[in-house]
Specification:
The protein is of the alpha/beta class. The chain has 8 helices and 6 strands. It has a 6-stranded mixed beta sheet with strand order 1-2-3-4-6-5.
């Protein structure tokens, strides 16, 4: 007599149904500032976020910045419910003596390869711009905007630590087309161009250790990082964060 229960077995191999487990996550102690969890935790406090944002902005742009207003994990909704919104890691505005925004900086460490990065950046900038100019305000008061992407891979394959992208007039590069928009792509392992200070920052982001905190600004950031990694609540939160990521990856197969 046949075992009827065998007829009820699903026709798939076990490994087809259960995906291969993801590699074990890095311990909290080994996270770098390129890892989303550590960057978000380090910038959760507004004053800490100002320290980190100021260092990134000044070393990337060569500008001295003051009067920074920082928002972390800022979300901008699309123009309606069926349009994309965005979530920015660190959204920073520089204000004048009248508290008017004169410049906007969107800082985005991105640890994963993004094949459509230029178009993603275009979308981010357009949505940010749409929120910056109140009705009846002249276009001349639209703040300058810098998008700063920090990447562990080379987006343009020229081994540069800094790629600066601006709009231009194709027929004559001498004509200045200043729409106030600058895109900055940082490659953490790049060797060409950039300053020593920028190289030190990128090396630190790529390998966040006390040894690589080679100046006073980076030491201040390292102090913030040490505080996060020593916090028991952050350790618990990281374990929950990794568990959520594991199940998201598992269920996406």
């Amino acid at each position: 007599m046949k075992n009827k229960s065998n007829n009820l077995l699903p026709i798939y191999k076990r490994e087809d149904h259960f995906p291969t487990p993801s590699p074990a996550p890095k311990p909290l102690e080994e996270l770098t500032m390129m890892d989303s969890f550590l960057f978000e935790a380090a910038t959760e406090d507004v004053e800490n976020a100002k320290i980190i944002a100021k260092s990134i902005i000044e070393r990337t742009t060569g500008r001295t910045v003051n009067n920074l207003v920082v928002q972390t994990q800022k979300q901008l909704k699309g123009i309606n419910t069926n349009k994309h919104g965005i979530r920015m890691d660190v959204y920073t505005t520089e204000t004048d003596e009248n508290s008017r925004s004169t410049c906007v900086y969107d800082i985005e460490p991105n640890n994963y390869y993004e094949k459509d990065l230029p178009r993603r950046n275009r979308f981010y900038q357009s949505l940010i711009d749409s929120k910056l100019l109140p009705t009846d305000t002249p276009f001349s008061q639209l703040p300058d905007i810098f998008s700063i992407w920090i990447l562990p891979y080379d987006p343009f394959n020229d081994n540069r630590m800094l790629y600066t992208v601006k709009n231009k007039v194709e027929e004559n590069n001498q004509i200045v087309y200043n729409d106030g928009s600058t895109k900055l792509f940082l490659y953490t392992k790049g060797t060409k161009g950039g300053s020593k200070e920028l190289k030190d920052l990128l090396t630190y982001f790529d390998n966040t250790t006390l040894t690589n905190a080679v100046d006073s600004d980076l030491l201040r950031i390292q102090k913030i990082v040490d505080s996060v990694k020593a916090d028991f609540k952050e350790r618990e939160r990281y374990m929950t964060y990794e568990e959520i990521l594991y199940y998201e990856k598992r269920d996406s197969h």
